[in-house]
Amino acid sequence: MELSDLIIKLVLVLVIFAISLVVAMYSTYAERKVAAFLQDRVGPNRAGPFGILQPLADGAKMFMKEEIIPTRASGFLFVVGPSLAIMTACIGSAVIPWGPQMQIGSRVIDLQVTDINVGILYIFGVVSLGVYGIMIGGWASNNKYSLMGAIRAASQSISYEISMGLSIIALLMLSGTLSLKEIAAQQHGFWADGYFTWNFFKQPLGFLIFMVCAFAETNRSPFDLPECETELVGGYHTEYSSMKLGFYLFAEYINMFVSSAVMATLYWGGYNYPGMDWVAAHAGPTIAPIIGVIVLFAKIFAFIFFFMWVRWTIPRFRYDQLMHLGWKTLIPLAIANIVLTGVIATLIKHFA
């Protein structure tokens, strides 16, 4: 790799990292505004015009709060927990294709940090590591309620990772690749050969299962049992304060952002949109990819809004209901979807 290519990759990494943090920061503002709208109240409106500086005020408050580590806590692991949670949340975006190739002068730039041929497995590996940050934090706190919240998180993540993995198999049977870049490229445009190109229209059940599992993996309501305040005070981060608590809260919103990007890429065409070939022909190889990036972020923000809408609409499950849904409903549905996809694909291939 040439030095200029390395510099471009480093710049892309920094830009994606900055965007992830800004989106996570303003997701807290958006969440409070969405909640206020759905509950017919105002929400944040004092810090800046329309309250848009509220996330900065909250961040300053987090930084300035007193650092407290419980006397009997494991000091090193107490710090490692939130650090691991925020790290695993941030590295998941490395394999997401944010747009088609952009041409600036004679140089072609990939709007993706790295394209590995097992991109989906990388995403699942990062998701699996994320639970360690929660588990370590709950155990290191030396608080039985924190530990119970951490155990809930671990069992919930393991249960729904199985369903999520099975739901994606049917999609892989159709795409024939594990590369997110190739999966996005296969959904070019919106319509081709007499049918929709976006995978949602080919795998609606798989998308539904994946989306439900994404809610569970990000600990979003109605799957927020690990931090169920009515039973566990505050869950796995009960003993945390200052920016260590902020890291856990930030990790949840970054995970929501990355999960939305993955769902948009796998099932909703990613950066593809109707008429993109016409736009590319008239806008040029520099502007057209930027429009694709804007389209992808529009889909991501739509999913983030849906996450928030569900949180303030649907009550949380009981824990037995959560496990029943994961093991006795979603897993059988995902297996049935694999079988159905295989049968239909075989028949289509046979009669084509």
Could you outline the blueprint of secondary structure elements for this entry?
Blueprint (H helix, E strand, L loop, with lengths): L2 H36 L15 H11 L10 H17 L10 E3 L2 E3 L9 H22 L3 H32 L4 H7 L4 E2 L2 E2 L7 H14 L11 H4 L9 H26 L8 H36 L7 H33 L1
Antiparallel strand pairs: 1-2, 3-4
Any descriptors?
mainly alpha; two-stranded antiparallel ribbon; single chain; 11 helices; 352 residues
Low-confidence stretches: none
**Overall body shape:** globular
| Main sheet: strands, sense, barrel | 2 strands, antiparallel
Tally of structural domains:
1
Structural class: mainly alpha
Number of strands: 4
Radius of gyration: 21 Å
Number of helical regions: 11
Indicate the proportion of strand residues.
Answer: under 5%
Level of helix content? 55-70%
Q: On the 0-100 scale, what is the average pLDDT? A: 89
State the separation between the terminal residues, measured CA to CA. 44 Å
Strand order of the largest sheet: 1-2
Order of helices and strands: HHHEEHHHEEHHHHH
What features would you describe in this structure?
This protein has 11 helices and 4 strands, in the order αααββαααββααααα. A two-stranded antiparallel sheet has the order 1-2. The chain is mostly helical. Helices cover 68% and strands 3% of the residues. A hairpin with a 2-residue loop joins strand 1 and strand 2. It has one domain.
